[in-house]
Amino acid sequence: MTPLQDARKTKPSTSKPKRLRLVSSQPPADSKLRPELDSAMAAGEQQRTPQISSSSTNSSGRPVTPFWKEKYERDARRYWDIFYKRHEDKFFKDRHYLDKEWGKYFVAQDGGNLVVLEVGCGAGNTIFPLLSTYPDIFVHACDFSSRAVDLVKKHKDFRPDRVNAFACDITSEQLTEGVEPSSVDIVTMIFMLSAVAPDKMPLVLQNIRNILKHGGRVLFRDYAFGDLAQERLMSKGQQISENFYVRGDGTRAYYFSNEYLVDLFLKCGFALEEICVHNKKVENRSLDLVMNRNWIQATFTLNPAGSLSPNNQHDHHTCKGMEDELAVETSQKSDSEEIDLSVDFSYMFGISRYLDEAQILKIEAKGYDFKIKVLAKEYQHTCKLTGLMLWESAQFMCSLLAENPSIVAGRRVLEIGCGSAGICSMVAASFAQFVVATDGDEESLDLLRQNTSSNLEAEFLDRIWIRKLLWGNEDDMKAVKELSGNGAGFDCIIGTDVTYNPDAILPLFKTARELISDKGNGDSEAVLILCYIQRRVDEDSILSAAKSQGFRLVDKWINGVNKSNGIISSWFCGNDVCSAFRNVTFSILYFQV
Fold first, then answer.
1. What is the CA radius of gyration of the chain?
2. Rounded to an integer, what distance in angstroms lies between the CA atom of residue 227 and that of residue 223?
3. Got the DSSP string for 265-325?
4. pLDDT tens-digit profile of 338-371?
5. What angle, 0 to 180 degrees and rounded to 10, lies between the N-to-C axes of helices 505-515 and 539-548?
6. This model's pTM is above 0.70
7. Residues 125/90, Cβ–Cβ less than 8 Å
């Protein structure tokens, strides 16, 4: 019995459920070096409530590149159309709290009919509760997304004589094209302005001024600075600008402070009536989480002579001392819940969320036809889990292994940073003594198990062991090395696109040196093969780190250019692997110890 087969017989240990704890800190850039969330095991019978801190600084995350910043703005309508195509009217709850919060404003003083404009109407979660409660109002409803407007018109309670629904980008299109100037009594902006780039927010308010009556009101509710969702986005490196972030689906969110919001409205000719920042602790029992959620609620009037306190300072009413607590389950929320922060628990914490947004890719290599489940391209732009994607170098190396089985034949093979696809490990399993496929991210490993089980026959599944390996982690390295057979190490270590993060290069080679065999396999010396596309780390840095850990470069290949005569160039004889990847510049480094 091989050590691998013996390890397979060991049953996983039984442990208590994991607890998740999120802190405001900057994580390592490489997901292969750490799991997505810190977790701690519950100890003993005493239960602790996880403490989740709120952000206390304006920025600590790495901003997105100018390219993506411009793309998010240019394609903003498209991202919201995709959102409503996917979720339809099932994402947001109906906002029945409006009567409690602002009911006094929806009753006409003279007994007449009020005209309301809902900006960013979405699927109608604000307007239809209003129409049900106040049958005498008329509602104009506009949204950036034409799909959202279609959902409003398809609603069972939609009546054209009571609702005028239309698509409008109010940062560039005039509301007066669909609404009479100075005809609206109340404008509702519920989690809408946060989706607009800060530099375009004044354009939105100026547009609203044109259709609002003198003395008309704007009822505002949106995300507040310090909300846990902001911390989550900040830690994932999804910051566009100060307090402005992009979510995983491409939609954006701004987190308002009192000062910023009041100054914004004041400069656009509005006066403040009231403002309140709400802080609420939300407990999710099934996830054992307590989350601090913040939102800001305000009322403004279109009245240049609006009341100002001395020194032109508004009186702010802040509810930060309130200890509101609410316990909810993941799958069911109370009907009386008034948070409505438009972010559910799985979305915020990324718990198996990405696996629901996967696509199937067909990968062909000599004698192989894989169907691989990976993260869909539309979600890859902000995803920190690089292992959920399929990289070009993995496809290139997969083709080389299929054409040259002698690279791994009869060897104890380790793939480091294999991600969720595992196509190199799956090809190697056909020829190697056994393969250990590793990655540092649990979610990637979960998807890897799905991909191997759906693509390999039982015979070859028995040759693959999937293991977590954080580079430099002593416990992980020890557990993986034990699988090699009496701790002898591996004859062949393969890594594809694992050299893109400068901070990860030295841990990579330290880990490889610890796990590689000193004796090799028979007459063959043990080898480390790295295939990559050069990104942020140059070749000299890679070679320097390798040398420091006792590796020597035996051969290298850069799209047909060789340092020495031979080993790697022989892999391309009699096949057309290069022609299939002619538009990509690959590097292959071949090391021994």
1. 29
2. 7
3. HHHTT-EEEEEEEEEEEEEETTTTEEEEEEEEEEEEE--TT---BGGGBPPP---TT--EE
4. 555 555 444 444 434 445 556 788 999 999 999 9
5. 40
6. no
7. no
